[in-house]
Amino acid sequence: MAADPSTPTTGRRPGAEISLHLLGGFRLLHGDVPVVVPRGLQRVIALIGLRPGATRSHLAGLLWPDTSEDRALSSLRTALWRLRQDPCCPITTSGDTVSLGPVVRVDVDALVGTAARVRDGEDPCAAAVLAAGRHDLLPGWYDDWVLADRERLRQLRLHMLEELAGQYLSAGRHGAALEAALEAMAAEPLRETPHRLVVRIHLAEGNAFEAVHAFYVYRDLLLRELRLEPSAAMTALLDDTLAPIREATRDAPAGPRRAPSNQVAPRARRDGVTGAAARVTDR
């Protein structure tokens, strides 16, 4: 094993399964043993993991965008040579293409595979789906290719969770549907679609107040952060629920209601039960 600190070192024999973790930060493991990889080589390994089978010129252009093609290719050749000094090198080459070896498992691939199974209507382990991709891709890295893939995977996970919530809702599994929708909501609090799902789930369970409360929690957040209103599609979810309440309120006799002399009439609060109920009848 080379002692050069510019090359990765493992202390493991070839043949052990290698796992590459890119979500939440770069980690390369041989079995359960961490591999010490210099930052420059981390970038090379990470990009190859995200672009399997890419050509050398494509990889070099992404890794060294501000240099000439010849110099970028030379830098890539040097990096690949350094990686091969480790007998457990995770990289393989075939002609002009570079890939990870067949024994390398990448957490990003697991997320993509889980999303595909959800999209195809399979029923993977709910806990595994909720946990998949919970951490951002390579936080603290700001290469253009990292930023693009980080957003791609973030959107993939959000749509996966929303798709799962919708499937569970259609199947009448309201608790599981709510859990998936809330996970998506936590990942992106200002995104409307998971909030809309939460409202639909509460309505499907017959919990009108929960649905109205969830709507106004999101409306208040959106107004406070972006000075926007929920879409017409989200507002329409509550029309049928609120219509009879408004009608009953409008038709009720307007008899005098006095608070006892030793009490103060409660004022509607925006963040509690009274607040939500007050807003329902005020609309």
TrEMBL record:
GO molecular function terms listed in the Swiss-Prot or TrEMBL record: DNA binding
Ranges for region Disordered: 249-283
Superkingdom in the source lineage: Bacteria
InterPro entries according to UniProt: AfsR-DnrI-RedD_regulator, BTAD, TPR-like_helical_dom_sf, WH-like_DNA-bd_sf
Keyword annotations: DNA-binding
PANTHER family linked to this entry: TRANSCRIPTIONAL REGULATOR REDD-RELATED
Protein's name in the database: DNA-binding transcriptional activator of the SARP family
Originating organism: Micromonospora peucetia
